[in-house]
Amino acid sequence: ALEPRHHEQLDYTELFTDELNFAVCPDHPWARLGHATRTEIPTQNYIFYSKNSYTFQMVGKYFEQEDMVLNSVMELGSMDAIMEMVKLGMGISVLAPWIVKRDVDEGTLVTLPLGRRKLKRKWGVMHWRNKPLSHPEQAFIDLCRKTTANYARNNSRRHGLLPQDAESVIAA
């Protein structure tokens, strides 16, 4: 689960953090340029998973703080469908590198930083605060910790999971 707002009845165990990036097809002008162009960000056709999701809210707030409104937004119920449409140049998306890693490695998608500020999400496991964890529940949390620790260990530029340098990302 993504990190929740404070909840009195639940405990939250953080597992890892990811960073959202633009995902574009290799023929997109931004891919050739190596970064997004600030004036073009609001004019793109965006493809998102769900307008009701916490991630969509985070993205909207991020661009609102940059005084931008994303003008064209399409909603699809499948991450695979989103990536296929982006590969075909039918729009762009905002996704985490671990979701598009295979496509980036194969050269069918390119990821670019959103801007100078990073947009990060915290992922973890939630459970009832006043209820002791059962053995299977604790084993599940331990497995999640082990798996995400491997993700964090491999989360480096040489593995293609972190975005490019954000220093010169968005031309003013």
Q: Residue ranges: pLDDT <50 for 5 or more in a row?
A: 156-172
Helix content: 25-40%
Query: Strand count, sense and closure of the main sheet?
Result: 3 strands, antiparallel
Q: Give the helices and strands as they follow along the chain.
A: EEHEHEHEHEEH
- Calculate the terminal CA-CA distance, rounded to whole Å: 35 Å
The computed structural class is alpha+beta
Query: Which range does the strand content fall in?
Result: 15-25%
Counting DSSP E segments of at least 2 residues, the number of strands comes to: 7
Tell me, briefly, the overall form. Answer: globular
**How many helices?**
5
Overall pLDDT, averaged? 85
Arrangement of strands in the largest sheet: 5-2-6
Write the layout of secondary structure elements.
Layout: E1 10-19, E2 21-24, H1 29-33, E3 45-48, H2 54-65, E4 72-75, H3 79-87, E5 93-95, H4 97-106, E6 110-113, E7 120-128, H5 135-154
Parallel strand pairs: 3-4
Antiparallel strand pairs: 1-7, 2-5, 2-6
Verbal overview:
This protein has 172 residues and is of the alpha+beta class. The chain is built from 5 helices and 7 strands. It has a 3-stranded antiparallel sheet with strand order 5-2-6, with helices on one face. A two-stranded antiparallel ribbon has the order 1-7. Helix 2 links the parallel strand 3 (45-48) and strand 4 (72-75).
Put the structure in a nutshell:
The protein is an alpha+beta fold. 33% of the residues lie in helices and 22% in strands.
